[in-house]
Amino acid sequence: MPRNCSWTDFEDRNGLVFPKPYHLYATIPFAFVMLILRFFLERFIAVPLASALGIKEVKRVKPQPNPTLEDYFKACTKKPSQAEIRRLAKKCNWTVHLVEKWFRRRRNLEIPTMLKKFQEACWRFSFYLFSSIGGFAILYDKPWFHDIWNVWDGYPFHSLLPSQYWYYMAEMSFYWSLVFTLGVDTKRKDFKAHLVHHFAALGLMFFSYCANYVRLGTLVMIVHDCADFWLEAAKIFNYAHWERTCSILFVIFAFIFFISRLIVFPFWIIRATAYYPVFYSQTFVIAYFLSNGQLLVLQCLHIYWSYLIFKILRKFIFIKSIVKCHDITIEYATRCDVMDHMLSSPSGIATRGQGVCVLPRAHSDSATPLPPPRFGSHWSIKWNPEHVRRRLPILVSNSALT
């Protein structure tokens, strides 16, 4: 509690409402409302959209029920060695091949389908998009959105606005719903980092609300949400195999992520919570340490995720450049092979599949068979002297050379 303040100063009066911890109890039932909304969105919007984009549900074959193998799969390992497979085959009176097939099918059931990933991405994209739009609508005309010092103007006697209350309810309900579905959602490589992030976000929102850091809390939420929906949009198009659109969206996401999480968040938000309070209060309440500690935890996660994003960007740019250079090199080398073959062969047409290369005639009266072209054994030579006389340049149509 700041100096010269008591709990009676924060009682609701004259139409002014102050944040109370018991307000946050409503986030639990609201989380179940979020789950209901998610069910309807995934079922009636995401599934038809996936079908329109060509993403189909894959039906996987379930393994034959076997309690012994099922217990071993859950308790020991999902990929047993050959010695263990032979031992289990003897124990179940099965062949080794049947045991291997059972484990292979059982592992396939654990792998989420593309449709499931698409549905989850659609739900997160929808929430982050509407949350970002709503956050900007709530904050764009507030003075502390443009000047961070106004976060502490008049603190701690900041009344709670209805828009701020519902913003907190929506965000906390969403993260509670993600916590409730951790066991059924797709587990990714950074599952532990996401788990830490969810609890740190919930703890930060709880303590910022109870300590009346609501103005600062809304800024933290908008800084996080403004980049996330770009990532989810990139995932949606990635699952639909729209590679160019996915790449563009991911580059936009990376740019916004680096700006918001590595520049705005540490040098704007954390600076306001760690440095500015010195000027308005000499009492360092527990909320100060808890809020700043959790903000630093989030910043550590931001640095970790930025490293992963940078690796993806570097790999994306580097591999794209290598593939492009490789394609150009192959095309140039293949054309050189064609030119070399022209200099030493009678005129003709080299074809591969539907591709056609017309070679100018070098020796019209030669009946010597041609050696096989150097660009592959699948090529053949078809002679057409009349066509060659009409078209001397190398013609390539519908070929792998272009």
What can be said about this structure in brief?
It is built from 13 helices and 4 strands. It is mainly alpha-helical and 402 residues long. The C terminus is likely disordered.
Shape: elongated
Output the number of helix runs: 13
Helix content: 55-70%
Structural class call reads: mainly alpha
Give the terminus-to-terminus CA distance: 72 Å
Annotation, overall tally of beta strands: 4
Please summarize the sheet with the most strands: 4 strands, antiparallel
Give Rg in angstroms.
32 Å
Instruction: List unreliable stretches of 5+ residues.
Output: 321-402
- Major sheet: arrangement of strands: 3-1-2-4
Layout of secondary structure:
Elements: H1 27-52, H2 67-75, H3 82-92, H4 96-110, H5 114-139, H6 143-146, H7 162-180, H8 191-210, H9 214-239, H10 243-274, H11 277-280, H12 286-344, E1 348-352, E2 355-359, E3 380-382, H13 385-390, E4 396-397
Antiparallel strand pairs: 1-2, 1-3, 2-4
Helix pairs in contact: 1-5, 1-7, 3-4, 5-7, 5-9, 7-8, 7-9, 8-12, 9-10, 10-12
Q: What key phrases describe this protein's structure?
A:
single chain; about 400 residues; mainly alpha; Arc Repressor Mutant, subunit A; 3 domains; 4-stranded antiparallel beta sheet; 4 strands; elongated; disordered C terminus
Describe this structure in words.
The structure is a single chain. The chain is built from 13 helices and 4 strands. The chain is mostly helical and about 400 residues long. The chain folds into 3 domains: about 230 residues, no CATH class; about 45 residues, Arc Repressor Mutant, subunit A (Orthogonal Bundle), CATH 1.10.10.60; about 55 residues, no CATH class. Strands 3-1-2-4 form a 4-stranded antiparallel sheet. The longest helix has about 60 residues.
